[in-house]
Every structure is written in structure tokens, then in C-alpha cells.
Amino acid sequence: MTNPFFKNHGPITLKDIYKVLKIKKDNTNLKVKIFDIADLNSASKKDITFLHSNKYKSQASITKAAACITTKNLQHILPSKCEKIIVENVLISTAKVTEILYPDSINDDFDITVKEISKTKFKNKVKFGKNVLIGSNVKIGKNCSIGHNTIIEKNVIIGENCSIGSNTIIRNSILKNHIKVLDSCVVGKKGFGFFPHNGSNYRFPQIGIVLINDYSEIGCGATIDRGSISNTIIGKNTYLDNQIHIAHNVKIGDNCIIAGQVGFAGSSTLGNNVMIGGQAGISGHLKIGNNIKIGGGSGVIKDIPDNSRVMGYPAKDLKEFIKDNK
Q: Do residue 289 and residue 192 come from a single domain?
């Protein structure tokens, strides 16, 4: 399960899926049970997944999923044992199926379960400021502190020796040990996932979490969205400067340093030891390798191989950039 917090209402059957997608299907075993939804890499033989781009053909060709929502033009990539559910719009269809399994993941209203920390079991275990609120299903380890006016909403696990600043909101997140989240951050709220459909916008359920690994620091005013189908992950010993936005499903490796006002679009992946200068932008669904340096103000719109130094818009090899801008 991607998110240990949202309740999975499965299993459902292929018949249920075809019904919600308004597809008539007779030549298959409609009683096959589907227990969860997952991305191509992590889906098991009991799960459903989706394929909407040829960019993911390598993952699609070896997926273990029992069924896959895809298009007529992409179905040939999938393994023969995988049930191909052919639709016109893969992402909207995936959203509809996800909503059946996780109906509670659509809305992100304020948490009505919160209590003042002085009225909870943490009152003598955590160092805290004024007006601190704690939701249900929250765990906090030893030697932690929480600043003024901060809300730890429901479904949060915080490890040992962590410091949470003032005016911060955290939900649907797991923070490991020795982590610092500075003032005015929002971590674990739903991502910017919706699709125009029939004159309105169809919301994509955000069933993932935010996972922040040991010894990382999140700067003031940062916003980290939880994942949609997979998780948003911050690696070990990674430092984020102020006012950084990280969209859903982004995965940042270990020992990365990211300067202020950098923005990440959804589902991009960074390797280890990546350094990014201020106000750079990383487009979605990209793979940034290990040991990368990206100059400030750059616009990254394509994959970057290991050990590269790039700058500019669109970002190019640093030597080429310097030559072009003499």
C-alpha cells in the first residue's frame, strides 16, 4: 500500500472497474479481484496500474499488475497476462478507479480531530510552543520540539530528535529521525492533480504520502505535496532552502542541496549528490542523475545524465552555456 493512512475499500472486481468506466466487456473473467492500485514498478499481481505514455515502456513491459488502464496504441507494450483496459483518457479513468478504492483521498479539509497538545499524551514528551494542535493517529519520537501555532494533523509519524518550526502544517507524512522542518512549511497536503473534463476539472485522488529521510532539513516556507499514486520522497541528509515547492511523486536522492525558490513539477526523480541553484525550475516526469550541478535560474526540460553541469533555459552543458553567452 502506498499510503498506510488512507483506508483501502478494496478488493473490487474487474466488473466493478468496467462498470465505473462505462465499458462493456464480455470476453474476460469479470470476477477477478483487484486489491489495490499502484504504479507500473510497484504493482503486484493483485493490483491495477496505468500506462499513458510511451516514455514508461520499459517499466510497462515487465509490470506484474493484473490489469492496466491504457490506450489502444500502447497496449502492445504490456505483458500478455495483464488485462488491458482500453480507454480514451488514461489519467481520468485511473482517477475514477482510484476513487473507488480510496474515496476518502479526494478532499483535504482541515482536520477536525485536532486537540491542543496540552490535552494529549504528548504534553510531557514534547517541547512545544503556544497554540500547538495535534490530530489523531500521530506518533512523535523522543527529544522533539514543535514551534508556536503549528498543526500536526492526522496521520503523521515523526521520529526522534526532530525539530518542527512555527506556523507549519504537516499531514499524511512520515518523518524519520534528526529532521528539521523550519517555519511556515506545508507538508503532505494534496498535490495539484486534476484534469479538464466536460467543462470542469476532475480531481485525481492523492493517495500517497510524503517521506522525509534522516538528517534532512526543510527550509522556511517550503511546500511538499504528498504523492498521487506513488510517494513523494526526500532523501537522507538532503537540505532544502526557503520557499521551495515540490510537487507530487517527486523523488529526491541523498545528500542533495537545493537553493531557494526552486520548483519541481510532478513525478521527476533526482539522484544523489545533486546541487541546484536558486530559482531553477525542473519540469515533470524527468530523470536527473547523480552528481549533477544545475545553475541558478535554469529551466530543466529534459533528462540529465550523471556527472553533468548544466545552466540556462533550456538547461545545457555548462561549457556550452558559457561559450554561447560570452
A: yes
Cα 34 versus chain centre, distance: 23
Nearest 10 degrees: Cα torsion 179, 248, 111, 104: -130
What's the distance, Cα to Cα, between the start and end of the chain in Å? Answer: 52
Task: Tell me the pLDDT band of 270, cut-offs 50, 70 and 90.
Answer: very high
Q: What is the residue-wise DSSP string for 7-64?
A: PP---EEHHHHHHHTT----SS-TT-EE-EE--TTT--TTEEEE---GGGHHHHTT--
For the question of whether the overall pTM of this predicted structure is more than 0.90, the answer is yes
pLDDT in tens, 232-255: 999 999 999 999 999 999 999 999
Give the CA distances from residue 113 to residues 117, 118, 152, 307, 325, in Å, rounded to whole numbers and listed in that order. Answer: 12, 15, 11, 47, 56
> What's the angle, vertex CA 210, arms to CA 187 and CA 4, rounded to 5?
120
Report the alpha-carbon distance of residue 218 to residue 272 in Å, rounded: 17
Residue 209 lies in a domain: yes
Domain that holds residue 47: 12-105
What Rg do the C-alpha atoms of the chain give, in angstroms?
Answer: 21
Asked if residue 268 has pLDDT above 60, the reply is yes
**pLDDT for res 301:** 97
The CATH number of whichever domain residue 64 belongs to comes to 3.40.1390.10
* Burial class, 305, CB count within 10 angstroms (exposed 0-12 / middle 13-18 / buried 19+): exposed
Count of CA atoms in the C-beta half-sphere (13 A) of 10:
22
Q: Which of 148, 245, 248, 285 is catalytic?
A: 248
Q: Catalytic: 248? A: yes
In a domain, 158, yes or no: no
